[in-house]
Automatic annotation (TrEMBL), chain A:
The chain crosses the membrane at residues 130-154, 160-180, 206-226, 238-260. It comes from the Bacteria. It comes from Knoellia koreensis. The keyword Transmembrane helix applies. Keywords: Membrane, Transmembrane, Transmembrane helix. The keyword Membrane applies. This is Uncharacterized protein.
Length: 280, 131
């Protein structure tokens, strides 16, 4: 009974900490170091013209990604209680981060359009203008590994679990594709060079974070289907499959994090060459 | 290259879009092989329904000015032979009509010739050069 009460108390504290961190993130303004880090990563010169746009967008992404991260951690803690343990699930945290990044991109409106006549540039925008090939190739490799493991698990076990994971993963992939399309297609009316360069920088950062967090989030279904595939293993045993799945998950978490936080300047030729500089 | 649409104008938005792209192709500002933005992008930037932009693109394709292919998007094919001359003549006619409308407005308002020319020059300076 006492053990149950202690467990309940610990869970309540853990969930309260997550909730507090999430709420605090919503109130916190964008700090100057964060703005400078963004400018350096995207090789953008922040000026009086584009500053408000950058600060507004960074505020939205900071709030939603942090909320997603802490919600993922809280869900991971609660999920671990099913097995009578209290563990910190990094994969769940990254899935929450990905979900938060997706919500943030749907809430960013881009450069405001004025009243009256409307103008547009005839220069096409594509995903390759905002995302390098490396993250896309990495995502394709991670998906290929997951797909192979899913097919192996389905053939070996014949159960529904691999298909359930496939449905969840493909839903996440569809969400990623739709959100990347939204990032590329959201309105960019012709404006000053500084404003358009900042808008491009925000799009490039969004594409990098979405792809990186998606690779990290893919770690969980990959590990899960490897574990399922190992259930019918008579020769090497379940542990080998589960260990490979766990290693792959850790690798995907690390690579995804690295890609999401690495420099990712837009390739539209409009970035202003002033790394790590802000103009007051 | 910038295109400009008046959503409250008497001319339908798809027709404004079609006319401006036609003029850009006829003048050579949009060269053959130039890729146009996707329907989604243009509709989003101009705040129009995708169907409106799609209609303009369909008409441009019917005129032989652009070609649309899956995965390649919409590409300018360029004016073929007499089409360019015809479009240039049409563009010049439209320009003269617009100039006459402006000249009449200047007279009605009692503006001097110099004042009217200065007003045109000031407006031209606010717009980016095409090409």
């Amino acid at each position: 009974m006492a053990q149950l009460m202690v467990m309940g108390l610990v869970v309540a504290v853990a969930v309260a900490v997550c909730l507090y961190a999430a709420v605090a993130a919503f109130k916190q303004p964008v700090s100057r170091p964060r703005l400078e880090k963004f400018a350096a990563r995207q090789r953008l010169r922040v000026t009086a013209d584009n500053g408000p746009l950058v600060l507004h967008a960074l505020g939205i992404t900071q709030r939603w990604r942090t909320l997603g991260l802490w919600t993922g951690i809280a869900c991971g803690v609660l999920w671990s209680l099913r097995e009578g343990r209290l563990t910190l699930d990094f994969a769940a945290a990254f899935i929450g981060w990905f979900a938060g990044a997706v919500v943030a991109e749907w809430r960013i409106a881009g450069i405001p359009r004025g009243e009256g006549r409307r103008a547009a540039s005839l220069a096409p925008r594509t995903l390759s203008s905002y995302l390098r090939r490396g993250p896309l190739v990495t995502l394709a490799v991670a998906l290929a590994i997951w797909l192979g493991a899913t097919i192996a698990a389905a053939l070996r076990t014949g159960g529904l679990a691999p298909w359930a994971w496939a449905a969840v993963t493909l839903s996440g992939l569809a969400l990623l594709v739709l959100t990347l399309r939204r990032v590329v297609d959201r309105p960019q009316p012709p404006a000053g060079d500084d404003l358009v360069a900042a808008d491009d920088a925000l799009r490039a950062r969004a594409a990098a974070v979405l792809t990186g967090s998606a690779i990290a989030a893919l770690g969980l279904p990959t590990a899960a289907v490897f574990e399922v595939a190992g259930r019918s293993e008579a020769v090497y045993g379940n542990a080998s499959w589960a260990a490979i799945g766990l290693l792959l998950m850790l690798l995907e978490l690390g690579v995804g994090w690295r890609l999401a936080t690495d420099a990712s300047p837009a390739r539209t030729g409009r970035a202003r060459p002033a790394p790590a500089a802000t103009q007051s | 290259m910038i295109i400009d649409i008046d959503p409250d104008g008497a001319v339908p938005a798809y027709e404004q879009l079609r006319t401006q792209v036609t003029e850009l192709v006829a003048s050579g500002t949009l060269a053959a092989g130039t890729r146009l933005p996707s329907i989604r992008q243009l509709a989003s930037d101009l705040g129009l329904a995708p169907g409106t932009v799609a209609r303009a693109f369909r008409e441009l394709e019917a005129d032989g000015l652009v070609t649309s292919r899956v995965r390649h998007g919409t590409v300018v094919t360029g004016p073929a032979g007499g089409v360019q001359a015809a479009d240039q003549a049409a563009a010049e006619r439209m320009l003269h009509d617009a100039a006459r409308t402006f000249a009449l407005a200047a007279r009605r308002l009692g503006m001097s010739d110099d004042g009217a020319v200065r007003a045109v020059r000031a407006q031209l300076e606010t717009l980016p050069h095409q090409g």
